[in-house]
C-alpha cells in the first residue's frame, strides 16, 4: 500500500514538473526559463526536478516527448478518419506537418527541441512514429500496393520528409505559404512509393482510395 502511494506521489510530482516546464519553456524559451521559477510555480524544489529528470535538459526531453507523442496521436486519428491504408498514411503526414503552425509546437518541438535535444529522428517519440509507419507500409507491401523497397528505409524517409517539412514551416517567415508548398512536395515525393496507377482506378482496393475524393 505504502509503495503504491509513493509511486502515485512521484507520478504526480513528475506531471506537475512537466506542466510547469511546458508553460515556462513555451513562454520564455528554454534558455531563459529559470529552474527556480518553474519549480516554485508548482510548490516544488530544484531537488525534485533533479530527482525526477536529472537536470533542466531532462525536463525539456520529457516535455517534448509528451507534446510530440500527442502530435503523433492526433496524426494517427487523422489517418483513421481518412480510412487507413495509403490515404490514412498521407493524412497522418499532412496532419503532422500542419501542426507546425501551432505556436507551442513551433517553439518547443521544432525550434528549441532540436537545438537542446539534438537530432529529432533519435527521439523516443519519433521512433514510435517510425514503428507505426513501418506497420502500415508492411500491410501495403503485402497487399502489393507499393514498390518492392526496404520497408524500414521507406518509413524513415517518409517520416523524415514530414518532420523536415514541419521544421521548415516552423522556421519560416511565412508559415502558411510554406505549409502549402511543403504539403504539395511531400505528397509528390510519397506517391513515388506506389506502384504505377495504383490509386488511379475506381477499382483500386479501399486501402488505396481516398474516401474524400
From TrEMBL:
PROSITE patterns under this entry?
HTH_TETR_2
Q: What's one GO MF term for it? A: DNA binding
Q: Which UniProt keywords apply?
A: DNA-binding, Transcription, Transcription regulation
**InterPro entries according to UniProt:** Homeodomain-like_sf, HTH_TetR, Rv0078-like_C
Q: Give start-end ranges for the coiled-coil region(s).
A: none
Protein name in UniProt = TetR family transcriptional regulator
Using the record's annotation, list all stretches that form the HTH tetR-type domain: 11-71
Q: Which residues does UniProt assign to DNA binding? A: 34-53
The keyword Transcription belongs to this UniProt entry's keyword annotation: yes
